[in-house]
Design a protein that fits this description.
The complex is a heterodimer of chains A (301) and B (524).
Chain A: H1 16-38, H2 46-49, E1 51-58, H3 64-73, E2 80-84, E3 89-94, H4 100-111, E4 117-125, H5 127-155, H6 158-181, H7 188-217, H8 224-256, H9 259-294
Antiparallel strand pairs in A: 1-3, 1-4, 2-3
Chain B: H1 3-23, H2 35-40, E1 45-46, H3 48-51, E2 53-60, H4 62-84, E3 88-93, E4 96-101, H5 106-116, E5 120-126, E6 129-134, H6 136-161, E7 167-171, E8 175-181, H7 186-194, E9 199-203, H8 208-215, E10 223-231, E11 237-245, E12 250-251, E13 255-262, E14 268-274, H9 276-288, E15 294-298, E16 301-304, E17 316-319, H10 325-336, E18 343-351, H11 353-406, E19 410-411, H12 413-442, H13 447-479, H14 482-516
Parallel strand pairs in B: 1-19, 10-16
Antiparallel strand pairs in B: 2-8, 2-18, 3-4, 4-6, 5-6, 7-8, 9-12, 9-15, 10-11, 13-14, 14-17, 15-16
Helix pairs in contact in B: 1-11, 1-14, 4-6, 6-7, 11-12, 11-14, 12-13, 12-14, 13-14
Classes of the chains: A alpha+beta (301), B alpha+beta (524).
Chain lengths: 301, 524
Amino acid sequence: MLQILHKTNIDFMGWKNVSFTVSAALIALGLIALVQIGRGKANLGIDFVGGTTVQLSFKERLPIDMARIALEKGGFQGATIQQVGEGNKILIRARESEGTADKIQAAFKQEFPGNSFEVDSIMEIGPVIGKALQRDALIAITVSIIAIIIYIAMRFEFKFGVAAAIATMHDVLAVLGAFTILNKEINLLTITALLTLAGYSLTDTVVVFDRIRENLKRGKREPLPNLVNSSINEVLSRTIITSLTVVLVLIPLVLFGGEVLHDFSLALLIGVIVGTYSSVFVASPILVVWHVRTGGRLITK
Amino acid sequence: MKKSIRWRLALILCSVLIALFLFLPSTPVSAKLPEWWKQSVPRIALGLDLRGGSHLVMQVETDKAVESSVDNIAASLQTAAASEGLAVTFSRAGQDIAAKFAEPLEEKVTEFIKKNYAVLEFKSRAKGEFLYNLSKNEVKRLKEWAVTQALERTRRRVDKFGVAEPSIYKQEQDQIALQLPGVKNPQEAISFIKTTGKLEFKLVDSEPSRLQQALAGKVPEGRELLYEEDVDETGRIVRRPNLVFKQTLLTGDRLTEAKVGMDQFGKPAVSIAFDGEGARIFERITAESVGKQMAIVLDGVVHSAPRIQERIAGGSAQITGNFTHDEAARISIVLRESLPAPMKVVQNVTVGPSLGQDSIDMGVRAALIGGLFVVVFMVFYYRLSGLIADYAIVVNLILLLGAMALMNATLTLPGIAGIILTIGMGVDSNVLMFERIREEIRSGKQPRPAIDAGYDKAFLTILDSHVTTLITAAALFLFGTGTIKGFAVTLSLGIIINLYSALVGTKVIFDIINSKWKLEKLSI
């Protein structure tokens, strides 16, 4: 039998002061990111705020400085330019929407008649659509978080449900915070990744909670911190391996999946790792601390 | 072999075969498959982000439609007031109508408006001025009408532009979404769609012998053969030939209004109105050609050819016939073709064909590498049992693709990521079971009871973890658009299929091994 971990006996509860500090920092980062989004200061994708991105593939290499001059001549002072891939592809982002992609193309055609290009992609989003997408994303997030809490509350006892929900939000906020620090764009795909993550990060928590409940039902006469500790130790290897298999498919997506999938799979990758950590170091300690303070029965037999 | 094993094995084999039958024609293998096979199954469609093309959303400026209707009402009230000798001036103020008059006329003006335009509601008064507005229902009707008209028009324009497999639909309340595969230059398509078609009125030559002659290939001098297209009950398009005079008598830009109304018998009819110059021309034509048919021709297609009953003065006319309400609406939409329904582009997402192909290549390669990692890892870590997990991955993948073909689902780039993600997540079910079985073995159980206990005890955990992921996938499906929806579909299908193959698929293999060989030791 090949094992990553042999019988472990780690005192997870003993680490709770450290882990709560780390998690508080992660949550704080996420909340700052949320506030920035609310203030309109975050790096939001044009699908949320409106604007235009155009990716052009030139026949010959085009230095960014020259591209910038062409754009300024065309009247796009505020546009940002970025080199993509091998250097003959550039990505232009402007704030204006309707008809902008066409004007940008015209500007390049006039400035560099010898260097022809192909349009890789165009995205023009009017402010109306941006608002609608923001609203839809918000509804999707709210609906799914509420539905998850209801489901967990139905399947587990109340305190378990709340602890799992906090751990899930912790994961989502941590990824949001990480994206803000990395200055990654938050767009529709990022939100999709966050939601997928919210559903998936619960898997590890469910595995741990199931075991805690099972051990409680066996009626072991043990103080709760010890029982939770041994439960986590019992399922530790599967918690790690289930995450590992997902990490294994995500790494190639991050590395070779192309520009569009890169950020999406990066968000998932960070989320899966944080989610594994939180199922052990956040969800379970919350359960213990809460229960020790308030007492009462944790499960109904 | 036990009966239950045989049944489950048959179930899996059948579902795999059906899935293969369903999705193979959607793969590159398709070229080698027989024609009957390809034609009998639905396909997995490629999203615009993979095949290249434009996704456009146009917003119909419904306020402008209301304003132009208010303009028309003000103008016709003015005409009517003039003919009654009432000294009042009507004008549009925003979406309201202002009536200005000398104070003593108050009562008369109130009467006059009540009689002529019942849809107007009194809003406010000032000295010598009344303000009227359209009723809420009327505004709503006008807005809906503007959107319907724009949608019909867009359909017709796109048809004429020539896009293969376009998809055009209404979204929100006032938006029209267009999926145009293969369009490389969206601006060209947009300007084509936004320009109006060419609406002409021409006289019909109804002499049967000349029509026969034209059909035989000898079109008489000064005439042309135009077709009227209609859809019969079976959904087939019927083309009826019409011989019309080449000369255009009147063009659509002279029309100021075309709407569904009632004829004197209360049947649906189309009311039209021309501007001043148009009215004069129309009067002359009708006077000269009583009894003849006048064809309404849009972009070279005859849409209706009503008979001129009498000379019509004043520029307003009615087209009557045995119309249903829908037919009358269709004709009035055609007539309004020349009245611009203002639309603006609020979203344009276009992917060039080369980027689409690059995306497919990169996505598929990354997915293959990831899948390979997992397959190798499982065998490395769980030995022979890992092979069973790998078999589950393959079954999962086949069933997922089959289900996507069955549902005629659209594969998008995030959808490819969704497929590979379900492989990573799907293998989790097996990990949970295997770990549980290991635990049972460590506690001293024999392989067979260990397997049974492992499956039993892991079941609820597996169910829980699948349901939570499914909840978020459902939320994504309900609120997502385009590519996101594609991701949500693959993810939800993948999760459901995972559950099926985890519960039915792998257990049966263990059972077969168990029933054939008395297992002393489990390779796990």
